[in-house]
Design brief:
The structure is a homodimer. The first copy, chain A, has 2 domains: 46-66 and 119-276, Nucleoside Triphosphate Pyrophosphohydrolase; 80-115, Ubiquitin Ligase Nedd4, Chain: W (Single Sheet). Chain A is built from 3 helices and 13 strands, in the order H-E-E-E-E-E-E-E-E-H-E-E-E-H-E-E. The first copy, chain A, has helices at 13-22, 160-172, 231-246; strands at 72-74, 93-96, 105-108, 113-115, 120-129, 132-138, 147-148, 151-153, 176-187, 192-201, 212-219, 252-258, 270-276. In chain A, strands 5, 6, 7, 8, 9, 10, 11, 12 and 13 form a 9-stranded mixed β-sheet that branches. In chain A, strands 2-3-4 form a 3-stranded antiparallel β-sheet, with no helix packed on it. In chain A, strand 5 and strand 6 (132-138) form a beta hairpin. The N and C termini of chain A lie far apart (45 Å). Mean pLDDT of chain A is 77; it is low at 1-71. At the A-B interface, helix 1, strand 1, strand 3, strand 4 and helix 2 of A face helix 1, strand 2, strand 4, strand 5 and helix 2 of B. Strand 4 of chain A pairs parallel with strand 2 of chain B.
C-alpha cells in the first residue's frame, strides 16, 4: 500500500519579497521597486473563465508522488519549520533569518549550515496524435481517478526534456519524441513550476503504468475538463486549444496564483497572472 | 567574511534513466525507448563554436550563493550520500534505492522518510537598453571578477518572473519590467536550470549590490565574452545576438551538457543539446 505524505507548506515568501523590494538600497537609485509586471492579460477566452473561489493549498496542484512500498515519500517545498535537524551533521536546527538574508531558514545550531528550500520543477508532455491528446487517469493521491498529463518531478542528472519523456514512459508506457517547449507555469503557493513540452507518439503502443488507472487519447472536443486533476493541467490544455483556434501554437509563461483556503478539488480557483509570450 | 560551501555532486541519474527507459514494461508495447530527441541542431553560427574540452563539475556554472556573515551556506544538488541524518526526526539515514524507484535516495532508518533532491531553478534577467545589455561583475565566488547577468536561486513563494526581478534589484540595484520569457537552459550535471527573461529598465538608475563589484551597460559588439562567469550566460548572450541577426527574438529551450573533468574556468567546454524552439 502506498504510504505517502506530501508537505506543501504555506509560504510567507511573497510578503517578504515585497518588503525587500521596497526597502532602500545603497545605490544611486532612490526609487522603490514595483512588482507590477508587463502583464499581457489574455483576451476574453476560455482560459480566463476561471471561478475565483478560495482553495486550500494542501496537495491541490501537486504532482504524483514517487511510488514506494516501504518508505514514506516526502516532497518538502517550503515549510521550513518542519526541518528540525541538520541533514549533514544531525544537530538540532533553529529557525531564523540569517544575516544578509530576508527569509526564515533552518540553521544548524552545531555546524551552522543552512538548509535551503527551493521550488521544484514538474516536467511533462502534452502528447498530440491526430488531433487527440493523451491523458492518464491517476491511480494515486492526490486527485485519484482524475485525468492528467503524464508529468512528475524532475530529477537531478536529467534535463527537463529527458524527465518529461521518462515520466511519460513511467505513467503512460508511451515512447514519445519531444517537439518543442510549450509552457512554463509557476505555482508560487506550493513551490512548484510546471514545464510542459509538446510531444508526439513514436508508435501507438501505450498502456497505464503503476501510477495510472487508464491512458486514453481524447479528441479535442472531448477533453474531460470537469475531471482534470490539477489547475496546471487545466491551464495547459486550455492554452493549447486557444492556440489552435488562433492557428499558431506558441510558448507560454504564466503564474498560477491559487486562492488559499478553497477546496483542493476546485482546480479552477485561481488566476493566471504574468501571462507572457516570446 | 563570506563562509560558503557549495555541494555540487556528480549524479548517476543519466545512467539510471537510460537503464529504466530501455527496460521492458508490462504494457502492450514491446518496443524499447530511445532517448534521441527531435533536436533542431543549430545552423553554423557563433553559438555552436564551443570548444569541446573537458571541464570539472565543481562550482562551474553555479550561481551566486546567498550571502551570510555568520552561517554556512549550502546549496545541495544531488550528492545524496552527504545526507546522513533525517531533517524531520534526526534519525540516521541509509542510502538505498527504494522499492519501485530507480535512484539512490537517503532514507531515514527511524521514520522511513525519503529526502528527495531535485534540480534548482536559477532565474535572471537579460536587460536590454538602447542596444546595450546590463551585466554585473561578480563580487563573490565562484567566478569572482567575471561578468554575469543578474540571476540567482528561485525562492519558494515567488514566481520565476518575480524572482528574476528580485535578483536584478539585489545584484544590480535596477528596477526592471519583465517583457517575455527568453530561455530555459538545463544543466543536468550540476542540477540547475536557468530561466532567463528579457527585461527593460524602468529608469536609468542602477548600481552594484553587495554581490557585485560593478554593473555596466555593454554595447552588443562589446560584450566581454572572454570574461563571462558561466556557460549559461555565454549561451544566453550568444542566442540573443543570433536572434537579433535573424531579425526575431524567440524563446529557446536547451540543455548545456558540460564536460566532466575540464577546468571550471573554461565556460566554453560543453555542448548545447536538445535546442528546441516553439
Amino acid at each position: 500500500m502506498l504510504k505517502a505524505v506530501q508537505i506543501l507548506g504555506w509560504s510567507s515568501g511573497l510578503t517578504i519579497i515585497s518588503q525587500r523590494l521596497t526597502k532602500t538600497r545603497n545605490s544611486s537609485s532612490s526609487s522603490t521597486i514595483s512588482l507590477k509586471l508587463s502583464t499581457f492579460s489574455s483576451s476574453p477566452r476560455r482560459i480566463l473563465s476561471f471561478i475565483p473561489t478560495r482553495m486550500s493549498s494542501s496537495q491541490s496542484g501537486s504532482d504524483p508522488l514517487p511510488k514506494s512500498q516501504t518508505f514514506v515519500s516526502v516532497q518538502s517545498s517550503g515549510d521550513v519549520r518542519k526541518i528540525k535537524f541538520c541533514q549533514w551533521c544531525g544537530g538540532p536546527t533553529k529557525h531564523e533569518i540569517p544575516d544578509g538574508e530576508e527569509k526564515l531558514r533552518a540553521i544548524c545550531t552545531h555546524c551552522g549550515k543552512i538548509a535551503y528550500q527551493n521550488p521544484k520543477m514538474v516536467v511533462g508532455c502534452l502528447i498530440v496524435h491526430e488531433e487527440k491528446v493523451l491523458l492518464c487517469k491517476r491511480n494515486i493521491q492526490p486527485s485519484h481517478g482524475l485525468w492528467t498529463l503524464p508529468a512528475g518531478y524532475l530529477e537531478v542528472g536529467e534535463s527537463a526534456a529527458e524527465g518529461a519523456m521518462r515520466e511519460t514512459w513511467e505513467e503512460a508506457g508511451a515512447t514519445v519524441e519531444v517537439i518543442s517547449p510549450f509552457a512554463q507555469l509557476d505555482i508560487p503557493l506550493i513551490g512548484q513550476t510546471y514545464v510542459i513540452f509538446l510531444a508526439r507518439l513514436k508508435n501507438l503502443d501505450f498502456a497505464p503504468g503503476p501510477e495510472s488507472l487508464e491512458c486514453r487519447l481524447f479528441g479535442l472536443d472531448d477533453i474531460p475538463f470537469d475531471s482534470l486533476a490539477f489547475s496546471s493541467i487545466y491551464v495547459t490544455l486550455n492554452l493549447y486549444l486557444e492556440d489552435l483556434k488562433k492557428g499558431k501554437v506558441k510558448f507560454h509563461y504564466g503564474t498560477i496564483n491559487k486562492r488559499p483556503g478553497s477546496s483542493p478539488s476546485d482546480i479552477r480557483a485561481f488566476t493566471l497572472d504574468y501571462h507572457l509570450q516570446p
